[in-house]
Amino acid sequence: MHDTIIRSTPDTRQIQIGRLRIDSIAADQAFVWTGERVDAVRDASYILAIPTSGCMTLTQCGQTKVVRAGEYVLLGQLGATALSAAAGLRLLMVHIPAIELRGRLVSVEDHIGGRFCANERMTCLLVDLIKGIAELFADRAPPNPQALATEIVSFVALTLGAEDRGAAIDVRNTRYQLRRRIFDFIEKHLGDQNLSPKKIAESSRISMSYLYSLFNDDETTVGQFVQVKRLQRAYEILVADPKGHRTVAEVAYEVGFKNVSHFSRSFSRHFSIAPRDVRQIGGAAPAAAKPAKDRSIAGTARFGTSYWEADRLRETA
Fold first, then answer.
1. Which of 111, 112, 102, 115 is nearest to 215 (CA)?
2. Distance between CA atoms of 207 and 39, rounded to whole angstroms?
3. 11-165, CATH topology level
4. Are strands 31-34 and 20-27 parallel, antiparallel or unpaired?
5. Phi–psi pair at 226, nearest 5 degrees
6. CATH fourth-level superfamily of 173-278
7. Quick check: 50 and 75 in contact, CB under 8 A?
8. Rounded to 5 degrees, what are φ and ψ at 144?
9. Largest CA-CA distance found in the chain, in angstroms, rounded
């Protein structure tokens, strides 16, 4: 559902990078943006918002935060979110399918709204990465969009994971530490074709029912999570082996799949690219992208009045 009300539409360009979308926004007057809200994780996206000029005020989950140029903030779609800014804001918004980050980061919901202190060096790298990609591919498609999308998501997860959670202990801290141990155990044993929920539960001395409840936090199952991690590991191995020293079958078995055909189908469905094609990161670009002027969507039905709501903000002291 859409919760926005627009009275002025900022100049917005959409840049599609595989399964990710980057909105490049230039607001010449003050505005308010209210994010699209969804009810199920499988349909949701996280939005990484990066002001490149000016600053904005975020209101989410009852908290207010000012985000300045060169910083970032993660937004969610499972709760009400609003951004407001004065004229002159330049903003990049990276839309990431929720399942992508949830398969890479423990308790990703904890990072929404800029709750923790960002790592300054990682933030600089991330901001420069997103700005560079937005500039390079504003009017052309990247050579391998799905591969690039995977690399972007991985770096976003790495940057969020480097945030300082601080010494404060909340009611979720113990659960967070347990989930992290379980994630680490799964990472170390992905190659075990007999890795099972029972083995995972026994590694942390918890019951099967409690293990399932930990994964229910992310509306996924243990089996689904393990498969996504295996696919991500396979992608990393394949992209690092452009000369094909290992066959697709060898990689499939190495990450714990018992059946090569099942691996290939799952990989292609998840990354929208066949395992054998991942090696060709530097190959020829796909069909030419539309001209830049066609990517401008200000005032269009695709991303216009149903998404942005313009609101002239009265100047306050």
1. 102
2. 29
3. Jelly Rolls (2.60.120)
4. unpaired
5. -60, -40
6. Homeodomain-like (1.10.10.60)
7. no
8. -140, 85
9. 66
